[in-house]
Amino acid sequence: MVIVMRHLIASLVAAHMIAASQPPSYTIDAIRLLNRGGFKVVVVTSQAGVAHGSVTEEFLSEVHGVITERVAEAGGRIDSFYYCPHHPHAAVEKYRTECDCRKPKPGMILNAARDLSLDLSRSFTIGDRWRDIEMGIAAGTKGVLVETGYGKTEAPRRPAHLPPVPVVANLIDATSLILRKSGV
Prior knowledge:
- The protein has about 180 residues and is an alpha/beta fold.
- The protein has helices at about 5-20, 25-35, 50, 55-75, 105-115, 130-140, 150-155, 170-180, and strands spanning about 40-45, 80-85, 125, 140-145, 165-170.
């Protein structure tokens, strides 16, 4: 199971920076339901802020730790985080590269599959941008676009090269769809 939760990462980075409270309850509910359904939950995210020098990898690791703790405190589990710190026009030279992990390329998902022994043909990518879905399809997963974050404006603009995928309101609806399709 692969989940692309761009909006979760963004809200929790902001929450961490201003010491705010928990992420939306439906996010943790969705993670718990997926865990109970036997799915591994993996967060993959492009982090151009690292490439541009506005965020360090150490800070990003700290944020992932906070997210992991908050989800665990609520009874859920994120199995792993994968991020791409690269950008072809990065201000920080060591991150200035064309890589195989920057969305829509599938490198982060392929690394997760290798590291966690995931069956990508039975996995799903949930995202709020078509490039999230494109990344998942390139890796061999099924896609679900959520209308939270950028999804509302992205939904009507599906690129012609991508097959139709379900479009749902939010992460809990995506979770419900995945559990139904998987017979869980």
